[in-house]
Prior knowledge:
By secondary structure, this protein is α+β, with helices and mostly antiparallel strands. The chain has helices at 3-10, 22-27, 32-40, 46-51, 83-93, 112-125, 191-199, 218-233, 255-268, 275-284, 286-289, and strands spanning 43-44, 108-109, 130-141, 144-155, 160-164, 189-190, 208-210, 216-217, 243-244, 291-292.
Amino acid sequence: xxxxxxxxYRATGRFTYAxxxxxxFRTLPNNIEELGNLVCAQIxxxxxxxxxxxxxxxxxRYGDMTRYPWYRMRCEDDVxxxxxxxxxxxxxxxxxxxxxxxDVENKLVLCCHYVSVLMTAILKAKGYAARSRAGYAPYIxxxxxxDHWITQYYDEDKSRWITIDADGFFKKGELPFESQYDIPxxxxxFAAKTWLDIRQGKKDGSKFIYADGRGTNSLKAxxxxxxYDLNALMNQELTFSFxxxxxxxxxxxxxEDFSKIDSLAELMTDPDKNFEQLYxxxxxxxxxxAFCSPLVGESDWD
Length: 302
């Protein structure tokens, strides 16, 4: 792996910038599994909160959900967008900072994207080349692959990227692989490859679900995540409030539109080898860089 590429992933973006918490992050455990479990202990997923003390939390591994105050936000995804914002709120709620025994009422209610960003930020502060990745996880629910964000860090000794998932406490035997802190590539559906597999008839698109409350699936779900994953590879880990300019027009895409995504996806199947080309596309193409947000629509880009 060349130094230029690794230095890109050692650098931070606006979401992974540690700011005043850089030194604090460096005091956190160096063991990746310990670090991942610690980060997971600070956060409740909104679905876990909704399910209460049932489902994945039947054994209270995430704490007693009945203790979570009814008047607090039940989803803070649009409030704490950056690693610094998340960390500041964790300290506000409990001055000890990151602690395994954090009370349920003092946890943040955030989804996998934020766990990934926080893990990536901490690893970067520790000097790792690290990146968030957007895709789909077939190991979360039976029979389908749910949209999901994970983290990768480059292991210098093993000379490879290691994929980790700190968004959950998985006990031995609950996953189809040995450890959530070294996920084999075949067990995570990276957006670009999955897009191409569906386009080529190798996979059933109906099995890939974007948890947007509308059951968006197949190519429409994957197209959005190709966009997110490209931006994440460029150290811009966009949240779900931001969608590409073309998102509202996807249902009317023609074969030429699909083929343009095919071409990008082909490059993204090997993002390290094709990094220069991907960076050029991201830097020059409005299609893959410009986005709409709650206050900025397509007309603002005219």
